[in-house]
Design a protein that fits this description.
Blueprint: H1 2-21, H2 25-49, H3 59-93, H4 96-105, H5 110-133, H6 136-163, H7 165-173, H8 181-188, H9 198-204, H10 208-233, H11 236-262, H12 272-284, H13 286-295, H14 300-321, H15 329-332
Helix pairs in contact: 1-2, 1-5, 3-10, 4-8, 5-6, 5-9, 6-12, 7-8, 7-14, 8-11, 9-11, 10-11, 13-14
Length: 341
Amino acid sequence: MYNVASSLIVTIVSTIAVIHMRSYAVPVVVRVFIPAMTLPVAVGLMFWAVPGPSRWPHQESMRRMVRYSVPLGLATVLGTIMLQLHSLIVASMCSPEEFIVYANGAIEVPLIGIVTGAITPVIFGDMCELCHKGETAAALQLFHKASMKSACILFPATCFLLVSATPFIVLLYSEQYRASAVPFVIYLCAMPIRIVFYGAALMALGMARAILVRSIIDLTINGILCFVLVKAMGYVGAAVASVLSLYVWHVPFNLTKIGQGLGVSWRASLPFKALLRILLISVLCMPAAAVGTVAVPGIPLVRLMAAGILYWPLVVYLLYRTSFIVPPSWLQRRIPVLLRA
């Protein structure tokens, strides 16, 4: 709840600052000021979650933390460089107009960070404890549960945005940047495999060095693929390279390592059958969103609202009927008997 609330506050206040101040500097200040304001709440939650007497850190424990965190810090730096590398290659090999079109479409839907950012800290502590105790079966079950909860949000969101990508981009950037919908759709193809933060599971398993190795190879593969495909396909090649490297290298490596750490095959590291059912429900509801997008021409916001009205109630109900979504008891009692799961 803290992560979702703090992320939403930063997003809303930053947006208001941009609209009213028309300056890039103000939202930067906001992104520093708001976390500083919420810091006491975070510290209070930490002390509340770990009761008992407090003490100063020990030197040995601090050294262990440094040994553990340095590979993760380097991996984070390499991940940031990798994200900027695509833009650098496109900017150097394409025209300024093409770069702007690519940059506007090469965005990650904030929903990914909000969902995975909220779930990851919750399961990370429990997974660490279970792995430390050797209860790998329970840790695997927790990882499966987190992936399905996340998929119930991200899979339908992916399918909805695939159908309504053009009005969504036009709403954000105006009709002038309609072509940005192409790289946006390509990047959306990576959204289904972002249902979990693989790094959290590897960290819980004590595989910090594996994360660093993965990041180094990620950067190498992405750089080579991006250069080759941009040369062959233009700015669209950068988006294709990013998604291709995720499916060919990044995810297989993560699932293999997680499977090894939990003592199962990579196929058992995620509940693929359940995830495919969630994906199938989301795909089957796409025509409803398409009808809303096409049937209401004109203003992009109206088209998105029409698509959402037709799509989201249907997909949520089907996920409820298949028991992927379990509403709280007070809401369950208000659902008509004929419509209950």
